[in-house]
Amino acid sequence: MTKTRKDFRRKFIGNHRLSPESQMMGYGYDPMLSEGALKPPVFMTSTFVFESAKAGKDFFELAYGKRQAAEGEEPGLIYSRINNPDLEVLEDRLALWEDAEKGLTFSSGMAAISTCLWAYLRPGDVIVHSAPVYGGTEYLIRNILPAFGIQSVEFEAGGDEATLAPAIEQAKKLGRVAVIYTETPANPTNDLVDLHMCRDLADKLGEEQGHRPVVMTDNTFLGPLWQKPLSHGADIVIYSLTKYVAGHSDVVAGGAVGAADVMAPVAGFRTILGTMCDPHTGWLIMRSLETLKIRMTESANNARKIAEYLRDHPKVSKVHYLGFLEESDPCYSIFQEQCGGAAGSTFAFDVDGDEAAAFRVLDNLSIIKLAVSLGGTESLMEHPFAMTHSDVPDDVKNRLGITESMLRISVGIENVDDLIADLSQALDSI
Asked: Distance (Å, rounded) from C-alpha 351 to C-alpha 318?
């Protein structure tokens, strides 16, 4: 009997369901199809040879939706803009972490975000989005989408329905609400958004306007290990794979997962826009997926110790760390249910003083690198007001708590005592 790729997508041993960290070692790949190579080769090819003209016709009909797949039929390889063996295995494995039906990978996190939005937004539509969000996402929504007739209404993250419900009402007056876009935890404040609430309001909107908005969530800060938004109300979960998933600060990529029918329009737009991930990058990310749980766990353990140190430091006025949420905070119950109580390893803190004081801390770092991005094996720090969120209007940043005294740290897997020593001497500069 000829084996297909389905034979190498085993999720159970008897009645025992395999965990994602085990499945990362071989799911979706048969070494015997690649000369017995333990790891998938890098398929650096632009095009693939068809066995016959009929096979080529069948592949294209399925790829472009001209017919439905027969039972057991899978898309054939055509061209690396459409599909590629490395990306197919990677996308299968990425989907496992959230038990999603379909995963897609992109050339960057912003490519993932923009492709998902283009797939579901049309001129005259309105996007309702949480704030703050990553600076690139903010720029896309605030400055680029309006040129295509798409308006936006923001609501502040923080777990309070009083901010989302009025935003929905305002958006309904402007046009068809097509997308509810969230980033939770928010970059850089770590404020949370209740995804159950987003789902419920999307369902209600669907009944009112005859079109249910798609709930999209940027899960870069905690996912896919510590938070699984699909199980809490999101329709599409988006990642900057550059960050924790790739985790070595050596690739740029993005990802999105969701139900097959929800992801189908995104896949179509990716093919035409050409925003797919390249095979070599995909291969590197597959390598990184094998150590994802180990890396994220170690960096989270380090982050807790550093957050506790900063909380007690006389020159630090506030630490925006999820593990410090109090029960009276609207985000506390969201954190417990939605994040499982996992605080992650990227957070911000406010130093006493102004931009000059914050810059002195950054300029005096030794082990911790002064750089943007996050989720790598090394620790990084940056100044959100002047760097990652530079494009966001100053009044908006101040309203959202992104001040000139705020620093963001992504904690890596170095020795935590060394990191604390570095922070201590840097804070002495204030």
From this structure: 7
Q: What is the C-alpha separation between 91 and 88, in angstroms, rounded?
A: 5
Domain region containing 220: 89-289
Q: Of 29, 120, 134, 321, which residue is the catalytic one?
A: 134
Q: Which residues pair with 183 in a beta bridge?
A: 218
**Same domain, yes or no, for 44 and 124?**
no
User: Are 338 and 377 contained in the same domain?
Assistant: yes
pLDDT at 64 over 90: no
Name the pLDDT band for 159 (thresholds 50, 70, 90): confident
The answer to whether residue 200 is catalytic is: no
Co-location of 297 and 269 in the same domain: no
Q: What would the mean pLDDT of 113-126 be, rounded to a whole number? A: 98
| 92 is annotated as an active-site residue | no
Residue 3 has pLDDT above 80, yes or no: no
Confidence of residue 33 (pLDDT cuts 50, 70, 90): confident
Same domain, 59 and 182: no
Considering the candidates 5, 39, 81, 318, report the single residue annotated as catalytic.
81
359-388 pLDDT per residue, tens? 999 999 999 999 999 999 999 999 999 999
Output the six-digit token pair for 341. Answer: 């109580």
Query: Quick check: is 84 in a domain?
Result: no
Q: Determine whether 120 is an active site residue.
A: no
Inside any domain, residue 130: yes
Radius of gyration over every alpha carbon of the chain, rounded to an integer in angstroms: 22
140 in the same domain as 270:
yes
CATH number where 382 lies? 3.90.1150.10
Judgement on whether residues 69 and 108 belong to the same structural domain of the protein: no
235 given a catalytic annotation: no
Looking at the chain, the whole-number percentage of residues with pLDDT higher than 70 is 98
Q: Which of 212, 228, 243, 295 is catalytic?
A: 243
Half-sphere exposure of 9 (CA within 13 A, CB side): 15
pLDDT score of 2: 41
The conformation of residue 407, written as its DSSP 8-state character, comes to E
Give the chain's domain count: 3
Nearest to 247 by CA among 379, 342, 103: 379
Provide the 8-state DSSP code for 251.
Answer: -
Q: Which of 86, 92, 194, 218 is catalytic?
A: 218
Torsion angle in degrees (nearest 10) through CA of 81, 86, 87, 90: 180
Do 167 and 313 share a domain, yes or no? Answer: no
Residue pair 317/352 in contact by the 8 Å Cβ criterion: yes
pTM, two decimal places: 0.94
